[in-house]
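Need Replication factor C large subunit's 3D structure for a figure. Predict it.
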Amino acid sequence: MPREMPWVEKYRPRRLSEIVNQEEAIEQVRAWVEAWLHGNPPKKKALILAGPPGCGKTTTVYALAKEYGFEVIELNASDERTYEKIERYVQAAYTMDILGKSRKLIFLDEADNIEPSGAKEIAVLIDRARNPIVMAANHYWEVPWEIRAKAQIVEYKRLTQGDIVKALARILHMEKVTLPKEVLYDIAKHANGDLRAAINDLQTVVTGGAEDAQDVLAYRDTEKSVFQALAQVFATDNAKKAKLAVLGVDMFPDELLQWISENVPYAYSRPEDIARAYEALSRADIYLGRAQRTGVYSLWAYATDMMTAGVAVAGLKRKGFVKIYPPKTIKLLTESKEERTLRDSIVRKVMKEMHMAKLEALETLNYLRAIFENNPEAAAHFVVYLDLDLKEVEFLAGDSEKAKTIWAKSMNIEKKLKREEEEARVREAGKEPEEAETSEEEVKEAEETIEEAREEPEEEISEEELEKATEEIEAVGKKEEKKKGKQATLFDFLKK
Ligand SMILES: Nc1ncnc2c1ncn2[C@@H]1O[C@H](COP(=O)(O)OP(=O)(O)OP(=O)(O)O)[C@@H](O)[C@H]1O
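Structure prediction for Replication factor C large subunit:
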């Protein structure tokens, strides 16, 4: 499926005059660049555009280049070979100018990531530069001082919610779509001045359809920035940037791990890159496990590095807009009412039968889903053990055909159990057991039951009824337990 062009690119202002609410900054940039063009290079040959993410710094550089006829040489400060590259371009630009080629403007992004050890040399290059060097930084004071000393600072403002709403409304107008005002306000409020994040969210909401709008907004209140943070992790191949991206996410690392795991296959397309990303995640998982077991929670930091930086550098990202999906466990929160009712009833059964707390039971539900999707034999045992009904089986299997097979198998198991009981009873009474067999007819019979069940939709069960039902199940379970002498666990089934 072709990916749509990211809206942040599609709607990136092409002209300086289209950049919103940064007039003062742009005026300074213009004056600085015009000095170059009038053959009178400014005293400070580099410029640092300093300001929060997504406020128009990069956009300024490209619009400026277009208006004044520069070719932009974009370099990233965290690249190990920054110095070499700047040197090459500073020289190349000079030579090429003489040959009449287009003027070069060196754009060094993330100047706050320049290693202090290399700062001195870069400062020398700035002195030698024959072409403008523009740098961008989120944190001016983290740019090494040697470089700050050689550069003029231009401050960019954090965009207001009003600026963001206006920019979003303009995009909606051009896309010929409408969205409720509250959704726009909500996106703007949570973007925290970052128009890039807001535009990405807008694209998620619009291209994901109404259901997703609800998803995104539902998560907003609790998982405020996880969508934005993951979009950043999956957009960069810079380890430090990836690590920083998740700092503001209010989430335990194991939950974050689930979010990242879920989205890896969408961010990468080459299998070897996906494998590398999952390898980093599995290391993260090992650290988390160790932290849990030993109580040494400082290991969380290593785990977080693995799942952010480790994933970000795993390979070649897909081009274009990466939509972030919530993990399945969390997705549970946005299921329809019917799905929720089914899930709750299964969770209750798991809690009662397997003596688990709710959280554990919810987790188990995920394993059950995997089992029901992939192993009908084991699934059938769970159907009997948890006394699931057909709808619950369909919910777990996610597919009515699979559910049918599992259901038929479970009926066989139930028959076999009954037969064994009967045999035991007969043995006790000193009689010969009756020959019982499972025939194809019986499987057919099971399938007919399924059809009937489907024709007659089950009534909704009230909470009280569920409680009662689960108590009954528990009572039966206890009896069974006595009989069998051992409580089965999830792993008993997995071994089958
Ligand atoms: N002031 C602005 N006016 C109009 N659009 C903007 C403005 N700021 C940001 N945008 C939009 O947000 C996107 C990202 O902006 P930009 O790349 O300029 O951010 P930045 O300030 O360089 O951020 P970072 O520090 O994260 O690199 C742009 O493509 C553009 O669509």
